[in-house]
């Protein structure tokens, strides 16, 4: 015996599917170093991308983090990564992002708050590192798709002692 | 049976040739496990080592737990307001008495058998005390307290009961630079929450050298230079300034700013809105200190190396960087930002923002420093090239910031301590110029 989805549930599944597909595409563009496409097509003009420090993990409002980019600085980060001036990303590292546990926390019609878990494997310069974190996205609904307005990756690592640096975009 | 040919033990690591203006370091200094072990006993067990800033333990009962010189310690402000540094190890069986990195506690309780110590280090609780005879006295089992002292808010510890110098004597000429940092606020400086905890697969000394090396700036940090130029700033290259040796292994570079300084040096990259506030602050410094010293505090960048493993860089923001060896080929790095406690909130945001642009494991510069020191460490695997050269500026009376005098000062002290010479006489014996006279 099967249970039919209610209309409401079906709408939620469709929304969840669209959000997941959006996040998977984002991960693919980042993995393929299609950073300008990502910047131009998937982010809002007032994007904020941040990675809090691993000790306070974003729980202290005034704390210093690891990354806190507005649109201009993120654009700068991308241009540096693409033009070969980032010595530690030249040659470019290979990355593989695993996105899971995608959950729509709130649906405010024009905006969605989305949580997801991420593991980013990075290989390059003889090293292999993994970055494990919890993402929070604020997505702005744009027709059938979205743009990211707020992108926070809270790392679960106690320190980046093993990694040394965070030279890719998570 | 194979008999390996070893270099004779007298084979020097540091070759300091003032006659030929040559300064070389044998790359075994970065790779040899025996030397790394000897560094722990000859340097880290003996020197004054940076623990933290007093603002990290702001009130009675506050504490931080961290490793210093490879040893777990707790820096705690007791209920009496006194800052002490304890061995983080129960006097009963040795477990850590504090496993939180920071917090507030009236007492520390060892989880193993519930021995409890006050935040002043006294043993105050022992469960089932009738298991001990009449000779057992709690007073004999207080936490081991290390000799610690502070200078202008910077707290140091030494594990050597025989350390002959007071902290102030040990800091030698570096006190002048700590004064230039702590004078930046009348109510005190504070560490901003959020530490950048990272590391590198390279010898710790490579990061010390890198942190006082301005010669690499234009080459390695092209992307940051490009970013600064896009904001209308001039990156450092022969823009004046000088490098100096401060005695006992400490050294510094001092140079005109390449960019704005959040304390009181405005350039267009900070935007016009905060300009009046920053200029008003600059004027207050002139009132407090006179034009010349105010200019040095507010309008000059500096990088200070405090032997053995502390770097303070005061430029677009202030970073305190503690660099800890973990064997020959790995280091742990702890970086925090220091700022005036009474900083304007908008300017604090600018400070944090610009800190992150340059500094930290995801900034526009530090990741390349991490990569390059790891690259050096890998290069040393090819043992054909035996020495690294650190002779820049030996031909000058006043070395420039692109020279290597601060690094040589570091290595000379390293060499003395590794030979068991505690360096009482070295100041008189030094032949090379100390660098510029303080302004």
TrEMBL record, chain A:
Q: Which UniProt keywords apply?
A: Dioxygenase, Oxidoreductase
Per its record, what are the GO molecular function terms?
Answer: dioxygenase activity
Q: Does the keyword Oxidoreductase apply?
A: yes
The record's section on SUPFAM superfamilies has:
NTF2-like (SSF54427)
**What highest taxon heads this organism's lineage?**
Bacteria
Q: Is Oxidoreductase tagged as a keyword?
A: yes
A GO biological process held by the record:
3-phenylpropionate catabolic process
Known PANTHER family for this protein?
3-PHENYLPROPIONATE_CINNAMIC ACID DIOXYGENASE SUBUNIT BETA, BLR3401 PROTEIN
Family affiliation: Belongs to the bacterial ring-hydroxylating dioxygenase beta subunit family.
Q: What is this protein called?
A: 3-phenylpropionate/trans-cinnamate dioxygenase beta subunit
Biological source species: Streptosporangium subroseum
Automatic annotation (TrEMBL), chain B:
Write out the entry's keywords from A to Z.
Answer: 2Fe-2S, Dioxygenase, Iron, Iron-sulfur, Metal-binding, NAD, Oxidoreductase
Keyword Iron-sulfur belongs to the record: yes
GO MF, one annotated term:
iron ion binding
Q: Which Gene3D superfamilies match?
A: Naphthalene 1,2-dioxygenase Alpha Subunit, Chain A, domain 1, Rieske [2Fe-2S] iron-sulphur domain
Q: Record's SUPFAM superfamilies?
A: Bet v1-like (SSF55961), ISP domain (SSF50022)
A Pfam family that the UniProt record links to this protein: Ring_hydroxyl_A
Q: Which residue range or ranges hold the Rieske domain?
A: 48-157
Q: What is this protein called?
A: Benzoate/toluate 1,2-dioxygenase alpha subunit/p-cumate 2,3-dioxygenase alpha subunit
* UniProt organism field: Streptosporangium subroseum
């Amino acid at each position: 015996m099967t249970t039919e989805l209610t209309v409401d549930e079906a709408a939620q599944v469709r929304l969840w599917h669209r959000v997941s597909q959006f996040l998977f595409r984002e991960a693919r563009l980042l993995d393929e170093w299609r950073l300008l496409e990502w910047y131009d097509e998937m982010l809002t003009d007032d994007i904020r991308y941040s990675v809090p420090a691993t000790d306070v993990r974003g729980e202290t409002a005034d704390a210093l983090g690891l990354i806190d980019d507005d649109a201009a600085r993120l654009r700068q980060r991308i241009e540096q990564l693409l033009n070969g001036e980032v010595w530690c990303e030249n040659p470019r590292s290979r990355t593989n992002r695993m996105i899971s546990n995608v959950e729509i926390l709130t649906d405010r019609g024009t905006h969605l708050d989305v949580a997801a878990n991420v593991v980013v494997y990075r290989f390059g310069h003889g090293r292999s590192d993994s970055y494990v974190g919890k993402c929070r996205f604020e997505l702005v609904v744009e027709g059938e798709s979205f743009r990211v307005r707020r992108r926070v990756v809270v790392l679960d690592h106690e320190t980046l002692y093993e990694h040394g640096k965070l030279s890719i975009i998570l | 049976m194979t008999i390996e040919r070893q270099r004779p033990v007298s084979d020097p690591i540091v070759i300091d040739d003032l006659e030929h203006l040559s300064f070389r370091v044998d790359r075994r200094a970065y790779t040899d496990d025996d030397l790394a072990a000897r560094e722990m006993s000859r340097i880290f067990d003996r020197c004054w080592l940076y623990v933290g800033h007093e603002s990290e333990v702001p009130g009675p009962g506050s504490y931080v737990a961290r490793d210093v010189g490879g040893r777990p310690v707790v820096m705690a402000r007791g209920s009496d307001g006194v800052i002490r540094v304890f061995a983080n190890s129960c006097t009963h069986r040795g477990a850590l008495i504090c496993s939180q990195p920071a917090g507030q506690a009236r007492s520390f309780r060892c989880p193993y058998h519930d021995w409890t110590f006050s935040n002043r280090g006294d043993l105050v609780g022992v469960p089932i005390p009738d298991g001990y005879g009449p000779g057992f006295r709690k007073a004999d089992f207080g936490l081991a307290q290390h000799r610690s002292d502070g200078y202008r808010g910077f707290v140091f510890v030494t594990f050597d009961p025989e350390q002959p110098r007071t902290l102030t004597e040990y800091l030698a000429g570096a006190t002048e630079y700590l004064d230039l940092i702590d004078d930046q606020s009348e109510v005190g400086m504070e560490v901003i929450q959020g530490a950048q905890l990272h590391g590198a697969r390279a010898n710790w000394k490579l990061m010390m050298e890198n942190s006082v090396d301005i010669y690499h700036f234009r080459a390695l940090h092209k992307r940051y230079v490009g970013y600064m130029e896009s904001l209308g700033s001039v990156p450092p290259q022969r823009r004046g300034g000088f490098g100096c040796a401060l005695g006992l292994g400490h050294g510094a570079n001092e140079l005109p700013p390449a960019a704005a300084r959040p304390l009181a040096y405005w350039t267009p990259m900070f935007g016009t809105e905060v300009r009046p506030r920053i200029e008003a602050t600059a004027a207050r410094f002139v009132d407090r200190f006179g034009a010349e010293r105010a200019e040095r505090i507010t309008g000059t960048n500096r990088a200070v190396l405090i032997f053995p493993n502390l770097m303070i860089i005061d430029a677009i923001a202030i970073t305190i960087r503690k660099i800890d060896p973990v064997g020959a080929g790995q280091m742990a790095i702890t970086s925090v930002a220091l700022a005036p406690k009474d900083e304007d909130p908008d300017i604090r945001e600018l400070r944090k923002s610009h800190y992150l642009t340059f500094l930290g494991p995801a900034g526009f510069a530090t990741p390349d420093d991490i990569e390059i020191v790891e690259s050096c460490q890998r290069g040393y695997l090819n043992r054909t090239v035996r020495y690294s050269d650190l002779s820049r500026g030996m031909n000058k009376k006043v070395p420039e910031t692109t020279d290597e005098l601060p690094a040589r000062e570091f290595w000379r002290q390293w060499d003395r301590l590794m030979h068991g010479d505690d360096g009482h006489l070295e100041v008189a014996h030094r032949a090379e110029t100390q660098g510029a006279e303080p302004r």
